[in-house]
Design brief:
homotetramer; about 350 residues; alpha+beta; Chorismate synthase, AroC fold; 5-stranded antiparallel beta sheet; 7 helices; 18 strands
Chain lengths: ~350, ~350, ~350, ~350
């Protein structure tokens, strides 16, 4: 049973709520002898952090990581690495007037029904603050992957109806939308700001690319690399769909068009998205996922309260009008965690 | 480590290759006292079976199930249920001339690179015959769900560029495409037959609907019901993408449009696709997935052999021109297995 | 959840009942490219088989193994290896007159209470016939260990009050008690035959020795090598206790006596039993376990029936008067399975 | 893969080293709505704490627990409960002169060989301080079991050669040895003090009793209740053996003596130790385990350094001369964790 753990071999367990003492993660089965500092983790947390631009919530958490265990004299020891980020800038009172209401599009209703109790402050455990543990542990996974020359990066390819058409990798971290298209960027930013001005929010699509994955990673028949990536990405809040390579377009293709031909110098196309039979082929792993518009908006909506009475609600608090730019960082983390996990599993079997 | 197992609580382990002795499954942690006969299993296997119409391969396996254990006097005993289907109609010689070639779009290349060895007969383990174990165990899961009044059904909504626009549930099992749209059916059939005549194949999209799931099923933060379903569905051969509720369309929506409002009588829409925060909300669970066109086609294509020399290949054997109609049955099985698993997990915690 | 699976990486799932269609096992995550024939498996099954001497039950099952999957042209392919042994010599009618009675010392009572149903024929799933799956998969594990020069063997060191005091490894497989003490052997045999003549049964102790385990195997803090071995061995029917190295004697020792001193040439003693902190130290892994006297005896005993009414019972059927000689084979299998599992886990982490 | 996690359903993950920032635990899949305060946890930590009497080390850690997550307004929410205990009274310099030496009986050697790196301060992760996470989470498990009227308690039954012969439950927590025998207590205390005065240490045996376990708990064939308990108890540092019910004595018994007869009013004896076929029978679960004498002693001993050179060593630091009294508390925790886990698993299956 996984619940709050992810990974079979390289395994993380996240904990914490939006407005509790803090959020964090325990990483188990990390390699020993890896150089690891709190700065490695802080770097990725800062990329994820809210309040980086006008496109983001003003909740300005320091999000300061502390490594509690598993590192000695600057190196991992092979024992569990626990990382804690204290919550510091909570404004729980923002939530007191909605404590008996279920916010449309939020998990309030289902948490309450499932557990019979609900930490209403900022969504409690269902808050995207939980992803801090993912990003912190993802930073460790990325360090491992770097040693293996595996390179993961993600970027926004769609905001509302604006789609990216160009690709400049260097541009991604230079713009707050994290798109790789310099031309689309101002339009995407405008779409987000318009939604924000309208008290509303907007969705998007992110593409993830993983380079230099050795051939042979992924465990059929169930733990296909693509199935594990889908599982990890779909576990991120707000994600509504995922597709690999040609994706949904493959439905309208013929086999003669979709099959990637092979030559001694490599594949001639990548409709597969980097896996065949769930095992990496050595091509780039490429997938895309859609995020819904942020549920928290200040336009009044119909809902009910815990007594099943009809109510109107506007969701205050500090929220991004579009989650795509920060989902880029979270998706990279989930992809990195998945890759390290599957590489360890592949490696484990090679004992004779 | 899952590899050939699926499910954390209600757990299946499949085994077998396309042209070996047989294929099968072991189901662990099944409820005790469930009435179960081999006919329950055979019914679903027959729905999955090839050779049912001109749209399907002529490989006419009997696909006869045998229950080896776990059932006594017509009832499950709570011990492992092993089910075996012997392979009977293999024509391994179909494959002897491609035993050193990698078929484009197939898993030949990656299995060989991963394991250093490859059962080339009909794809070996990577064959869709493996899904017999899924469908057989899915039949057991469905029997359990029926006791809980939970209803799972799937249907083809797109073949090539032909999309379904109407819905008549009764029609699904009356046509070989398994579409619910009587008008689209002849067009879909035509699209498949045209591909077949052209020695080619074609893709499709399937929608799955699960009714009467009680509120509260799904274990955040990683074992969200939608994440688990995505994992299970993406583990089916040929699946290239999955989306829930509004899915990729949510990317171009605003929050005010996408959020499902709540009233004392229920939700006013179902853009979420039946889960909030990864937990079932009591609405229908609705998702769609895309299958690529069958990789096996008889149009010559470029490939390499195991010595990395360039070759031309046509993929003989007996293959469906479109996998969508049979993927309907497999998807229902994976959804049923996932549901039973997650319901047991939810139930397990309720001890005080 | 394990239930009928054992191992985290090299994982087996056993199935089958004493008087059903058969018993078997699925092995997942086996190495690829290992030469494996049905004879490798049959060899160990024959060692486990009943009816080998007058010390054993006369139930003369052929116990003929069939490999259903995972092996191609004499080598493992890395896919699941399913092994089936059909039941052939069942005499279910032996059990019909006790079908409503709970046999003292047997699992009848608890299976019935747990599952609400019970396959009363020969104990059903609780029969030691289930261990065929363990021994069959253990044969595969042993083949892998042999490639690593790891050597596992077990032998009876106590029957009733007769304790072995000498050790001659070559003698173990030459006597039906499987003791390594030529002097103790006739006394042990006599103790078993006396119990048998008295319609009774008798217990014993077995020692297991594992040589050439490399240093570093075992995953603290919970998956210590000794903890995993204890788990595996205690899961064998009839086992009542296990101890490592000095074992229970360590309770009456002082630290100065118990600590194994270290020299450049190795340890000066092995009170630890081959692990320190749960990790193999390179010394022999040595442990002992006790098996209770067989529960099935033909001396009349008090019991109840399923209606909670007092009854007298004698347990007919064909049973060994002492399980120790055959437990030797089962223990070797469980130790081999555990070792391969833990070696794969240790190996998996070594990716940088 | 478990490594630093224990439990399949009610799952804990411990982290932390003896002389790092702290030690702790994350509990996953706890019931929701359980009243839980930090005092519940502190109560058990105080029982485990060193420095409680002259029999124990003088390391006087405050061992102050902080609940970081999973509890809201005094009740568990069903989300992960993270508990942190900061290390405050480390004296790392005690260890600087042995940082290149391997202490006999310690895990220094194996950790160094396994991970290629070693936190030498107080044993790092292999320190018994790690068990704080077990005891803290065990306190939560005990609260759950109390709601189910299940009662777990342990007591010392042997120190060196002194064995308890009487049983007075009330006396257990009134004496620092935690024996239930008022007559044996002064002799046990004397044995410990004599070892301490001789710069030495001494071993012991602890018995654990679990009352009111409902019939039906435990999952054959591998996750037998006794196998899981053996796994959990053997994962505690210093434990060398475990036995259930008649235990090793069963080896010298006949079946007619060992089988527990059944009457309408219950079993007439408990040689089984509370399980049949690995499933609880409703009788008391009774088992015993042996702890070796503390490895850390100040009598000089032979060892080697990391360059494989011969050395002499005395192990300073602050250590108990006998671990039995505190092992009582740790064993109760492991038993409680195991019980809750297995009860949840049993309960999970009951869905129809």
């Amino acid at each position: 049973m996984n619940s709050n753990s992810y990974g079979e071999f390289f395994k993380i367990t996240t904990f914490g709520e939006s407005h509790g003492e803090g959020v964090g993660v325990v990483i188990d089965n990390c390699v020993a002898g890896l150089e690891l500092s709190v700065d490695d983790i802080q770097f990725e947390l800062n990329r994820r952090k809210p309040g980086q631009s006008k496109l983001s919530t003003m909740r300005d958490e320091a999000d300061k990581a502390e490594i509690l265990s598993g590192v000695f004299e600057g190196k991992t020891t092979g024992t569990p690495i626990a990382i804690l980020v204290r919550n510091t800038n909570q404004r729980s009172k923002d939530y007191s007037d909605i404590k008996d209401l279920f916010r449309p599009g939020h998990a309030d209703f289902t948490y309450f029904k499932k557990f019979g109790i609900r930490d209403y402050r900022g969504g409690g455990r269902s808050s995207a603050r939980e992803t801090i543990g993912r990003v912190a542990s993802g930073a460790v996974a990325k360090k491992i992957l770097k040693k293996l020359s595996i390179d993961i990066f993600a970027y926004t390819i769609q905001i509302g109806n604006i789609k990216a058409e160009n690709f400049n990798r260097d541009f991604i971290e230079e713009n707050p939308v994290r798109t790789a298209d310099e031309n689309a960027y101002p339009l995407m930013e405008k779409a987000i700001m318009e939604a924000k001005m309208a008290q509303d929010s907007i969705g998007g699509v992110i593409e993830v690319c993983i380079k230099n994955v050795p051939v042979g990673i992924g465990e059929p028949v169930f733990d296909r690399l693509n199935a594990r990536l889908a599982y990890g990405i779909m576990s991120i809040p707000a994600v509504k769909g995922i597709e690999f390579g040609a994706g949904f377009k493959a439905a309208s293709m013929r086999g003669s068009e979709n099959n990637d031909e092979i030559t001694p110098d490599g594949f001639l196309s990548n409709n597969a998205g980097g896996t065949l039979g769930g095992i990496s082929s050595g091509q780039d792993i490429v997938f895309r996922f859609a995020v819904k518009p942020t549920s928290s908006i200040t336009i009044p909506k119909n809902t009910i309260d815990i007594h099943n009475q009809p109510q109107q609600i506007i969701t205050k608090g500090r929220h991004d009008p579009c989650v795509a730019p920060r989902a880029v960082v979270i998706a990279e983390a989930m992809a990195a965690l998945t890759l390290v996990d599957m590489i360890m599993i592949h490696n484990g079997r090679q004992i004779i």
